[in-house]
Amino acid sequence: MLKSDYFIDVLLPIPLKQSFTYQVNQEQAATLQTGMRVAVPFGKSKIYTGIVLRVHQQTPEYKTKPIDQILDESPIITLTQLKHWQWIASYYMCTFGEVLRAALPNAFLLESETVVQLVSTKEVDEKTLSDDEFLVYEALIHQSKIHVNEIKSILNKNKVVGILQKLLQKNIIEIEETIFEKYTPKLKRYIKLSSNYSSEETLRALLETLSARANKQKEVLMTLFMMQAQNKKPIGSIELQKKANVTASVLKTLLKKEVLEEYYIKKDRIEYQGKAPQMLKSLSEKQEQALTNIKASFKTHQTSLLYGVTSSGKTEIYVSLIKEMLEAGKQVLYMLPEIALTTQLISRLKHYFGDKLSVYHSKYSLNERVEVWNNVLYNKPKAQLIVGVRSSLFLPFKNLGFIIVDEEHEPSYKQYNPAPRYHARDSAIVLARLHQAKVLLGSATPAIETYFNANEGKYGLVRLSERYGKVLLPEIELVDIKDKHKKKKMTGHFSDRLLEEMQLALSNNNQILLFQNRRGFSPVVECTTCGISPQCKNCDVSLTYHKFKNELRCHYCGYHIPMPHSCSACGSPTLDTKGLGTEQIETELKQLFPNKSIARMDQDTMRRKNAYSKLIDALENQEIDILVGTQMLAKGLDFRNISLVGVMNADNLLNFPDFRAHERSFQLLLQVAGRAGRTEERGKVLIQTYNPYHQILQQVSANKYEEMYEEQLQHRYQFKYPPFYRLIKITFKDKNFSKVQKASYWFAEALKKNTTGIEFLGPESPPVGRVRNLFIINLMVKIPKNKPLKQAKQALAVVEKTFLTIKEFSSIKLIMDVDFY
Ligand code: ADP
Ligand code: ZN
Ligand code: ZN
Hints:
Blueprint lengths: L5 E6 L8 E5 L1 H6 L5 E6 L3 E11 L12 E2 L8 H13 L4 H8 L11 E4 L12 H12 L2 E3 H8 L5 H9 L3 E3 L11 E7 L6 H14 L1 H16 L4 E2 H8 L3 H9 L3 E7 H6 L12 H16 L2 E6 L5 H14 L3 E5 L3 H15 L3 E4 L5 H12 L7 E4 L11 E7 L17 H12 L2 E6 L4 H8 L4 E5 L10 E6 H6 L3 E2 L2 E2 H12 L3 E5 L8 E4 L16 E3 L4 E3 L6 E3 L12 E4 L3 H11 L5 E4 L9 H10 L5 E4 L12 E6 L3 H4 L6 H13 L10 E6 L5 H7 L3 H14 L6 E10 L2 H18 L4 E6 L5 E2 L2 E11 L4 H17 L7 E6 L3
Parallel strand pairs: 12-17, 12-18, 13-15, 13-16, 14-15, 16-17, 19-31, 22-29, 22-30, 28-29, 30-31
Antiparallel strand pairs: 1-2, 1-4, 3-4, 3-5, 6-7, 6-8, 9-10, 9-11, 20-21, 23-27, 24-25, 25-26, 32-35, 32-36, 33-35, 34-35
């Protein structure tokens, strides 16, 4: 071996188990460090961006290629990150490359297939561009999108990634992508008298016409004048409405008549920009106690659970802890289960932490994500507090001191597809260990596993069992809709009780939330003559009816057809929609309450850009009287004026065939209920059900978390589920049913031979046994907690390896899901 031979091991973002060795020269070897990016050739004509794992002088067995280019001057990935990713790959049984792909913003991973385009809003000073950069720029002006591969021929050279990387940095080009959304500060609505009435005569005339008929409208005007006289500050629409004691529709009428005008001011701008961050709220005695207990628990535990009822003020406690950590010079990560939740929380946190806060999630544009990445990496003042969803776990923290996992029970913390199928809560705990940081898990309805860990002493446990301001938890009433149907007391899907309570809430100028579960109960079309429902041609499910577009859709693959006029099986024109979706409830509501403003929050309506934050603003501004929605409603939203929550039908939640169905129903219902009556007056919750004696509903109505926990724990023990067993779900997919069946049996047999003390469930077809034309069979592997997980996984890996060499099974898609959720 010649001394002058230098090599690097490179991690590529592809699902192969091993890293690849490339050749570098001495000069390159001297600059390269672990965690820097290089552009490398791969196969015949591909280019990839990869990460340097190691620089060395060991000549590999195979002939190595030289790298194309070095892309960074210093590492953009830390050693701690690499350790963490390695753990994720090994624990969740996927490749390191798959973790890399999930962890890095795509803009860091230019490759031959990447498509780039110009940033449309950017003015470019051509003098600042190098010759090559200019050529790319010019090409993009003529041809709006170009593959990285094509740029090779435009420049007539292979080393193009570095040039593109520069253009990305200069914010001249961007990677093509469909989704991105900026954080928009929330708008507060203010009211003033229209300029039409600025003169005394016009105003007098107006008041005269109003006093005749529209007493309420006059009341609004008089209140407005009074408030204006009292102080010169802008008058918020809600304050006005409250003081005048009128409904939102009275204001609306005045706006329509152009008597009043509305205008908006960005709320957090006036409240924090340019000013020193606000003082913290002073904590209540109970909160103070909880805070002290959390700090004490951190002396002995790395991870603690804050189990605090809804609206107990957990967020304010987090804020105190964050403040202390930031003052100690540590970075803080605040994780949320869903992007949708960030809007409200960010406005709250911005009050306290102003510019120290950055947000990170996949709906941000790639360039923005890169910016946050770099700010975290260089420990910039702007990135001391990161708020994000599960992917924020992958950021290059230098000095992480504290992680909050809010709503830790939320299933969306587990990535379902693609690999890595990691659980962000559990991975956060591992990350914190690497940084010697603390973790606080927060929930009003902790996951069974978490509460178990806390009870076992593995986590610290702090309770907060009183709502802030001593507001009572909402009163929960179960409504037996079977009985109501019998007694003919249903109007559509609304019981007389629900309608009564709705009338009451509306007459008090309060808002209402109605909840309809998304899963398993979508509106399905059925022929009343022959009983057949139109099916998806790719999946084994009924198509669901979408009224707005008058079409039938598959929720699994997106297949859709116009609503047919007659049954395809018997030809009768007797197709009928049944089942209950949010859309249908909305329709019924519009008939029941024609004068009220009604809105809907579900995946269909929330698809548009900023739809979510607009809806939240409208809700806060009390422009919405009744909101119908799916599980999205349940999650941590904080509204002042909701006095009534209605659950349209609790049964479809409970009937879901999953060992967590009961736990989840409990959590979901209690969380939805928690949206009611968060200030002053006690809220009311009505749950409509065919089965009011179901033990879970009884437990929900009496807020008996502990009882639910004990009972579920019994079941888990008896039927061998977490926290007593760990689950690995192995999924087999193929176009050919008998092949997938054969493969799954082969695998199960081989695994049984290679292991002891492990339980199996299946192989069996799931309820939806075919999706996108692929048949599915699952094998659930259950490993007792007292058995080393590593050994079981090793056995699995061995069986998998053999499996992959069997020619007959080469078309089978094999998916491993560790800690299946
Ligand atoms: P949780 O996260 O436990 O559901 P929040 O933190 O959202 O509860 O608090 C519920 C409501 O009570 C919020 O509107 C919050 O602003 C208010 N609140 C909580 N603690 C305080 C406090 N110490 N001072 C003033 N308001 C508070
Ligand atoms: Zn389908
Ligand atoms: Zn028919």
